[in-house]
Every structure is written in C-alpha cells, then in structure tokens.
User: Fold these one by one.
Assistant:
Number 1:
Amino acid sequence: MFILKIIIASTRPGRKGPHIAEWVYDVVKKNEAFETELIDLAAINLPFLDEPHHPRLKKYEQQHTKDWSAKIDPADAFIIVTPEYNFGYPATLKNALDFLYQEWNYKPVGIVSYGGISAGLRAAQMLRQVFASLKLIPLAESVSIPFFAKHINEQGKFITDETLDHNLTTMINELIKWSEAMKAIREKR
Ligand SMILES: Cc1cc2nc3c(=O)[nH]c(=O)nc-3n(C[C@H](O)[C@H](O)[C@H](O)COP(=O)(O)O)c2cc1C
C-alpha cells in the first residue's frame, strides 16, 4: 500500500478548493492501493519561508518546518488540488513547496486544477516547471475542471460528471504505477 497525500493549495476564507478536494479524496479512498490523507495548507498555516539553510540540507530550525517535513516525508505520491490565481498557482503552494526538498524527491504527483475557461491549466503548467527542480514527477494525466463553480451545489458538494470521473480514475491508475517505480528508485539511493 502506498501513502498518498492530497494537498489543498488555496487558503483564503470562502475558498472552493476543499469541495473539489473532498471529491478527489472520496474517489481515492475507495482505492486499496492507497492510504490517503487530505492536507489543507490553510490548517498547516506556514509563514513565509523563514529557514536560514537551503532545504536540500534538511537542517531545519523552525518547529513548523520540522512538522511540515514530518507530514510530507512518509508520502509515496501526491495529488495537488490547485486553483489558478492571475494565470499562475497560489503563492501559498509555492511557499509550501519551497520549505522542503528531499521530502519531495522522486515522488509522483497528479494535478487537479480548476478555474474558469482555463480550467486552471496555466497554473498546472507552471507547477510542472517547479516540480522539475524538486524532483517531483508530474504525471501526464491530470484533471482539469473548467467553469468549476457549475459543479458545486448549494450544499457545497462537488457534483462530478462522467468525463471528470474518467480523468480522475485514469490519473489515479497512473499514480499507482509511478508510485511503485519511484519507490524502487528511492530505495536504491
Ligand atoms: C486572486 C485571484 C485571482 C484569480 N485569477 C484567476 C485566473 O487567473 N484564472 C481563473 O480561471 N480564475 C481566477 N480566479 C477565480 C478563481 O478561479 C475562483 O475564485 C476560485 O474559487 C479560486 O479557488 P479557491 O476558491 O479555492 O481559492 C481568481 C481568483 C482570485 C481570488
């Protein structure tokens, strides 16, 4: 069994990210390949990067960094649920990524992005550049949700459709293959 962490990137009051992440979590939870945890960056509440050393050295001085490291380190795979802010991804997510290094290395990541007509794709593309530096392996398969607000009902529940379900399932199946491959690589190090 692999450990999968789903990260909610948006942190603002009234955000929609958790509604989408709950849908992702409910689908992944049914998959026996993964033990899954939802991580909410709003709850993690990191300050702007305040470590004196490069994260590559893993010489953390702040307790919040040690806690963040302990959360991310055991993961075999990630799904990042991100909105698009001004054609990019949220600064909160960049900050959370920058805090760590080795904890991300050689692990696959699937992206679920949402937005208006763009479906958050510009944010997703930008993320791939940053993942390269962290040796996070982005999957080709992703879930892109255009006009996401149409999918959220009055009770705040995300209403999926056939295409989104298909895309999410495809991404999860790929994540299993890459989790296996990357675990083997990490063990060889
Ligand atoms: C600061 C800000 C910038 C935004 N920029 C974009 C954008 O570039 N593209 C887009 O599709 N939606 C954009 N939106 C609209 C978001 O898609 C929408 O507000 C969504 O709910 C944001 O996700 P969140 O609720 O999880 O924070 C923006 C929203 C905010 C708050």
Note: The pocket of flavin mononucleotide is lined by residues 10, 12, 15-17, 83-87, 115-116, 118 (CB under 6 Å).
Number 2:
Amino acid sequence: MEHKNLIGHDGVVHEGLLNGHTGFLVDVTCDAGRFAVVHPYEKLDPARVTETPLSCPACAAANAPAAGPLHRGHLAHQYAEDVLALADSRGYPPAGDDEGLRLAFVALGEKVPPSRRLYPLIREHLTDMLTERALAVPEGVPQVLVPYTRYTGGTVQAPAGPGDRLMSDGVASGHFPIVRVEAVEESPTGIIVTVREKGWHPFTWPAHELGRCFFKLDRAPHCPQARASDHQP
Ligand SMILES: [Zn+2]
C-alpha cells in the first residue's frame, strides 16, 4: 500500500491510499471517498500527485502523531491480519473477494464487522501480505523464479520452494493442473525442481523451464497441521 498526497477536484489535498504495484487509487483516508480525487472509470491523473501538505482536516487528523481518529489504512491492516490468521488456522489461502471477506468476518465473530467501504483497503493489505509471503525465499533453497500474479493486480517474479503450490500454464492444452513443489535441488545438469500433482507420481523440471510452464499460486500454508500433512506420501 502506497500513501500519496493528492489534489482533489475541489483543490483540497487528501491522503490517497494506492495499490503499490499498479498505482490504482483504492481510497482516501477521510470520508470523502476516492471520487473526491478521480472520476468514475478514470485513472488517477499523475498531475494530482503533490508534495503539498495535507489540507483536508480529516486526512490530516488521521495522520496526526497522537490522539487522532484511527487511520482508515491502519484499521484495514488490522482486519487483514485477522483474515490471514483465520485462513492460516485452516491451512488455506484467504478468499479476497467481497463475499469471502464477509464470510471471514462472520467466522471471526467480529462484534463490529468492518463496513463494505473498507473492503477494498482490506483486500489491498491482504494482497500485500500474501505477496510478501510469496516472495519470501526459503533458506538454503537454490533460487528458481516463477511469475506470481497479485490478487489486486501486478505480476512479480517469486521464488519456488518446497511446499509451494504452482499452477501449470495450460493455455495451449486447456488443462491447468495444480502441483505442489516437493524439492528444489542442484544437480550436475543444473537446478532441478520436483513437483507432484495430487494422485500422480512426482515429476522433475529443469529450473529454466519452470517459469515458462508454471505460475505460483501461494506459499506453503503457515499452518503446522497442513505442513505436517505435506510430508505424507
Ligand atoms: Zn481527505
């Protein structure tokens, strides 16, 4: 999540909260909403980005060092952490769509569930957390990179490690199997990646071909139970 000062339609400087990979304006910190800065179906005009200090009283108050109202972005971050922790306890990646988020808050039993207005910011934080996790390099594993597409936009190159789930890019065959990485090892002919599709024998790929044929879905779940079951045949 990126924060930038943006000039609104009325000339007031708001704090904008943006997708760090695509530059999409997700929301502003105050109650004015993103349409105080962009028009519907229009991209953010780069000329609206400014170094001028915030002149919107609500945006400025949310950024005041002490005793201000809770910053919308920080609140969304807390909710995103809760959603991710719930998903980890189940061993599955979290659903980022509106209904998935709503169900997560029902399951969490939040006394005051977040308003729908906060969902895009929660989704953005959740995407940042999942991207950070996808980019984490497992220690001692030779580096093999595969594309990883962020839920809210933007593609990055992520390392493949044991336990990761990859999807085969089957655009030619129409077949998109999901495989789990079992090992990434050095061999006399180069780095070899062993993957296994559920119910099939393991299959090895030369590292340089992996990034052409697969993209990364997610890092191995942070759930101890799910990890233990990964090692079962
Ligand atoms: Zn504002």
Note: The chain has three domains: 2-62, 72-134, 137-230.
Number 3:
Amino acid sequence: MGRDALKVVSVGTGWPGIVEIASDRGPIPIALHVSRVSPHARKEYEWRFQYPGNRDPVVSPDGILPILLGVAEVDEKVVFVAFDGNSRVGKIVRSSLLFNGGILMDAARDGWAEYTSTRGERAVALHPRLLAAYVEMLQSGIFPEGREVANAASASGVVAEDDEEAAERARIVVSRLVRNGAFSRDVREAYNGRCALCDLSLDLVVGAHIWPVSAKGAPDKVWNGLALCHNHHAAFDKYYIWIDPTDRAVKFRPNILEIASTDAAAKIFTQNTRPNLISPKKATDRPRLAMFQKRYEELAIFYGWAG
Ligand SMILES: [Zn+2]
C-alpha cells in the first residue's frame, strides 16, 4: 500500500478504528475491528478469530463497511485474516470465527488464500498490501475465484518484492478480476442465466465480452457481452463461431462443420447451436453492431474464413 493508500481517520477505542482506503473512485472508509487470531485447541488445523468480549459488538458507524481483521505472522511475514463484518453487526454474544490455519501459510507464499466455513463465512488470508483489493470485493459483492486471485497476486510479485510498484500491479490485476466478475453477473442476469447460443442454463453460463477485454477501450457494458455456456464460450474464444452483426446469424467455421459431419457428438453440439443469437430480456442490452465490428477488426487474422 502506498503512503497515501491508507489513512487513519479515527481510532477511538480501536474497535473499530476508522480508516480510509485509497481507490480509483476516491477514499473508501472502513471500520476495522482488529483482534487476535490464535490456534483453536479442538482441532489441529483449526484457527480462530476471537471477539474481544460481550461489551464490544461489531458496529458499522454511519453505515461504514465493517471488517474483522486478524493479524498473524508467518516466517516473520505479516499476514492479515479478514472477514466481512456485516453478518456480525450488533451481535453481543462472545464468539469466534473459525478458519483453517493452512490459509495463513498459503497467503504468506502467494499473497492470497481463502477458506469458507461450514456456516458459509469466508475467511480471506491476505498480504497487507492487498487490503484495498479485499475492500473492493466486499463493496461490489463480487468475489472472483480465490485461486485466480492468488495467481494474479503471485504473478504481480507483491509477495516477493513487497514494494509499492508490485502492490499497484496487484491492485490493478485483482481489480480487473472484480470488474470481470461484475460484468459476467450483469450479462448473465440480462439473459436470465441462459446461453445466447443454445438456451442452456443450469448455472453453467458466464458473461463473455464481444470486443475483447484485452483490447484497450472495450467497455464493460451488457451490450458488449453475450451470456454463454462454457462450451459456447470456449467455441467463441477459439473463433469456431462467427456472428453476423446485422442479423445476428450464427455461423460455424467450415472445418468444424466438416468434423461434425462424421463425429456424432460434434454434430449434436453444432445442431444445438441456434441459427440466430437469442436476445436478452431488454432491447437496450442487445449486443451492439459496433462491438462485433471491433471484435472482427481486432481479431481479423482469426476470422478470415468468415468472409
Ligand atoms: Zn450454449
């Protein structure tokens, strides 16, 4: 975290201490409830975050985001353990939040590790420089897959280098994951969770960009997205499928159709693909012509067959 990334606003009793986290959209105040984490006697791998006592409930002053934060040390490296405090606001019964101590070791190595308890409470062990990324997730309600965050954090060098440059790289890549997650959710909802190419739902659908996110300027708008099942997402990403921007007709690459003429399973896949894109609920969410044009410009070398 940079010098200006974290600003203490009010510590008070320390439970909570109000601090501000710097973000692209300005400072975000959080109510930090810092307490001890310790091994739990019952099971060897089990650790817990302990409440200080009956008279100190978790609070959310002025609606400020409450975060329960434990501080641990692994091989002389500080690791935070964070919980969303919202589910504990106002609870006066002294209790502990349990987590698998293994995430402390994993976070010391990769910068990020998660554990979800049987009660559905998520513990995140993280490098202190990734606290802003965690706050962004809590605020947006989008939690990218923990392994993906760990890979991104690890690749940014935030653990190995532990400097502000690496921290900024980590923040950008994790923030990208959060924004992708929000985009995917919005696109999925626009299509009622159904694939725009085959109508499958079964919670197997993600939101994919048309003008790809790797291109500078591609917007995270529903009209630059398609809800696709995993097979159609992969087929779209591998340029097996071309969609006519004007009438939304769906076209397969000739060699895929050739394979489908002799391979029964491939034939079922191509036959299950609708001849035209299925539309989202709202007309304003329909994929825009320009997004397809941008995609084909950007990826022209892969679409020579489409003509
Ligand atoms: Zn599909």
Note: The longest strand covers residues 65-74.
